[in-house]
Amino acid sequence: MVKGDVERPFEYEYRPVEELVLRFRSPLMDLLPAEVHEHLVASKRELLLAMRCFVDAAISRLEEREQARAQRRTEIKVE
Fold first, then answer.
1. Domain that holds residue 6
2. How many CB atoms lie within 10 A of CB 9?
């Protein structure tokens, strides 16, 4: 994590092959230009849309598995 004596409007944490986490500090966000705020709002929307696609894909995979299981089952009548 990046920390120091100088207050920064954000900090980051990087774990190779795992994740990159950016944290924006609310009080210091006022120091950023308006254009940056606009981009952050747009990126938030894009992130939410990406998450929607991810969830939709996961649901589709589950439904496909359920259909495959249902097709494998056959009812046999015993007399």
1. 1-30
2. 15
The answer on 70 and 38 residing in a single domain is yes
Q: What is the pLDDT of residue 7?
A: 66
pTM passes above 0.85: no
Among candidates 14, 41, 42, which has minimal Cα distance to 29?
A: 41
How many whole angstroms separate alpha carbon 79 and alpha carbon 76? 10
What does the pLDDT look like over 14-71, one tens digit per residue? 888 888 888 877 766 677 788 988 888 898 889 889 989 999 999 999 999 988 887 7
> What whole-number distance in Å separates Cα of residue 41 and Cα of residue 47?
10
Match 């950016």 to its residue by tokens.
22
Q: What amino acid is encoded at 46 in this protein?
A: E
